[in-house]
Amino acid sequence: MTVPQSSSSLAQSGTMATGFSPSATVTQSGTATVTTTASSPTTASAFSCCPANGESSSIGEDSIELSDSQGNNNTMYHNGFFEKEDYHFPKRPTVDIEFRDIRYTVKKINFGKAKIESKEILHGLNGSFNSGELTAIMGPSGAGKSTLLNILAGYVSSGVSGLVQVNGKNRSNNSQSFRKLSCYIQQHDALRPWLTVNEAMSCATHLKLGFSISPEEKKKLIEKILFMLGLEQKGNTPTHGLSGGQKKRLAIALEMISNPPILFLDEPTTGLDSSSCTQCISLLKRLAQDGRTIICTVHTPSALLFEMFDKLYSVTQGHCFYQGPVKELLPFLSNLGYNCPSYHNPADFMMEIAVGEYGADVGKVIKAALKKYYEMSSECIKLDPVFDDVKTVVARYDFADADPKDTDCSKVEELQLQLKDRGGGGDAGSPDPQGNELCPEIVDNTKPASLMMQFLLLLYRNLLMLRRNYFLLGIRLFAHASVATLFGYIYQGVGPNANQVLANYVYLYGSMLMLVYTGKMAVVLSFQVEMESLTREHFNRWYKLGPYFLSVLIIEVPVQIVCSLIYVVISYHLTGNYYTFDRFVLFALFCVAGSISAQAWGFFIGATLSIKLAVFIGPILAVLFSVFGFCTRYVDITPLFQWMWHISYYRASFHGILNSVYGMNRDDLFCPETQIYCHFKNPVLFQKDMDIEHVDMEKNFILIVSIVITMYIGTLFVLWYKLNKR
Ligand SMILES: Nc1ncnc2c1ncn2[C@@H]1O[C@H](COP(=O)(O)OP(=O)(O)OP(=O)(O)O)[C@@H](O)[C@H]1O
Fold first, then answer.
1. Where are the transmembrane segments (predicted)?
2. Is 664 part of a structural domain of the chain?
């Protein structure tokens, strides 16, 4: 069958980025002579991407050597990047990945039928990705590309069954040694916008390499990586000032510090223009050529880009649609009767067939892909449960007692069942029976930073970001100062007066409310905003959660303390509450403690709930707890809710500040001569009315501190769960 030619796709092939432009590349200082050593012009491939006979051409490599006036030649332009002779990433030993019968099932609750339903997303994918190869995982939207990548990278493991092997060794769930061998760069770069490229690189280098190499070596390494990735001119540019392509390259550069032999990238070209795409894929190709295993998902690449990949793994509807060398894709489809029209982008053509365009029988292609795969393996075979005329490999587990030629597969199936039982039925792969590290000979001996050093580095990084992004901090300080002035003005001089006790009470309540809200809401979104960066850095083993959390607290807590003190100092004096220094200290202490307690709640709520819920539940909780302090006497609370009175940090701090103002045997208040009678002249009367006659300051303070600690532990636990939930 010959497929009709699509005019829109014809246009695609004409939009190739040229491989190089000599005039644009000579940016080295000094005199430079340019010698072109291009083996074949890149553009040539643009017009022969999909010859009518179904064979594809290979892209030529372009390079220009740059010589200085002495004729020393150590720099050349190569596939879009400068290169110095000594500027190569070290070659990596071979790490091959094989996967067998990967299935991914999600469970969801069907409220209508009141039962839990399972849905299989990936239906037994097999394949292998080899060292030195750049592999593209492609397929229509929703086909399961990201899911497969997540499983292979070890990012998802619950609901997964099947086996993943690394150099022939079974990879266990959450394998730490696999994490040492690989890195995962997700679609959203999740970089720190306020750090410059140099700062980001330097911080990542210190975190990843600790003291294992000297500062000079680190500096050289950063220089080299940036040079290799074409970012050497961008060292002092803040990350938010980089283009999309430069951000992608920075994300790769950050991971190249530890030089992992396996790189997983989710849609590294999405959102990039064609020349940035070409640069990005060229870079990955070169990294692969140095012996790495590079696997990335891509969406509709141009024909030029498509040809740069060594291997294609195509997925549709959770099945493998094609796997093998890119150049064999068209002959494979052609054998099935689907001929790519001349000048049509093979990647587009494959996608069109994968969604059944041109009346293509998708099931037939999936079957053929399975057959092709099994023909290449001489393993235990049996009939596939879906395609009953296809003989399928059950497994090729490295069990000594499994006969690879066991045609009825009973032994292998039995072992497979055991494997599932051991993994709780939902694990990707069984643990290495000996519990050995994967490829210990390959894992670099570099030691990452110690926990203390991680904390100090992260603290330094946070301070740097705070210094750059001082606007928010300024707003917080300004808001506290201006609200304090406003409150102080409204309730000016009410503090010492017996006839204005209720006005002062409202000021005190309002102050507590202000400090609780600003404390809580300023951090409620902290982790929500941070989560993508945190996940990426934590998953790629930059640091542990403990030092990270501590480095956040050590910035946020003092900021909130300073904000609270600004508020307290201004408003306390304007309202005339200053009576003795001791009382002021107690007042400030309870204000700050209440605010920090609310902040701890904010961290917990933000880490636990989604953005929409967090911004809604946060204030509701603050109001709920405030009710148990303001004008509410313990005896009036329904016994069912009395426990809330006991655990209310708001009540504890509010009573603390009330007691510091009116309690502790304060002398009579001032009753102006204009007043005939001042009911609250003796402050004890007011305390009695409010049921705060016997405030136990110590107990209240201990309660607040306990709540703060509980919330910190709760936040840590939730973050740990989110980061490690796979
Ligand atoms: N946790 C989950 N719960 C429910 N459905 C899921 C879950 N994870 C994946 N899916 C479904 O599995 C299918 C494959 O998702 P996946 O993100 O892997 O697709 P994709 O090929 O990467 O798509 P795209 O190219 O649009 O990103 C989709 O239909 C998605 O809705």
1. 470-491, 506-527, 548-572, 584-606, 613-635, 701-721
2. yes
Tell me the C-alpha to C-alpha distance, in Å, between residue 57 and each of 53, 54, 452. Answer: 11, 10, 54
Test site for ligand 1: of 102, 105, 121, most ligand atoms within 8 A of the Cβ: 121
Residues 192, 368: Cα–Cα separation, whole Å: 46
One domain for residues 141 and 268: yes
Which numbered atom of ligand 1 lies nearest the CA of 149? 18
CATH number at residue 313: 3.40.50.300
Ligand 1, atom 17, lies closest to the CA of 146
Among 343, 375, 407, where does a domain finish? 375
Alpha carbon nearest to ligand 1 atom 23, residue: 142
Quote the domain boundaries for residue 563. 473-724
Q: How far is the CA of 143 from the centre of ligand 1 (A)?
A: 7
* Domain end residue (candidates: 351, 375, 399): 375
- Position 1 in a domain: no
Q: pLDDT-derived band of residue 561, with 50, 70 and 90 as boundaries?
A: very high
Residues 6+ apart with CB under 8 A from 157: 151, 173, 174, 426, 427, 428, 726
For residue 601, the CA-to-ligand 1 centroid distance in Å is 34
Reported ipTM: 0.96
Q: Are strands 160-166 and 169-170 parallel, antiparallel or unpaired?
A: antiparallel
pLDDT tens-place string over residues 675-707: 888 888 898 998 888 888 888 999 999 999 999
Q: How far is the CA of 330 from the centre of ligand 1 (A)?
A: 27
